[in-house]
Specification:
It is built from 3 helices and no strands. By secondary structure, the chain is mainly α.
């Protein structure tokens, strides 16, 4: 599967799932700073990072034809 196809598959659709996790105050501040610098939200930044990592590991996330 091409990167663009996998990216669409991961990002399109109804967002109904949630992931909650604990971070240090320092990491929260760092994420907020990065998001602000990129003119985005922390949530969007995290999703973007997850998609980028998924593209690097297509064989683990269903990007390879089986």
């Amino acid at each position: 599967m091409e990167d663009s196809e996998l990216r669409k598959k991961l990002l399109n659709g109804r967002k109904s799932e949630r992931i909650n996790f604990a971070v240090t105050p320092e990491l929260k501040e760092a994420a907020a700073t990065l998001a602000e610098e990129r003119c985005t939200t922390v949530s969007s930044l995290i999703v973007s990072l997850l998609v980028d990592e998924s593209l690097k590991n297509k064989d683990l996330v269903g990007g390879e034809e089986r």
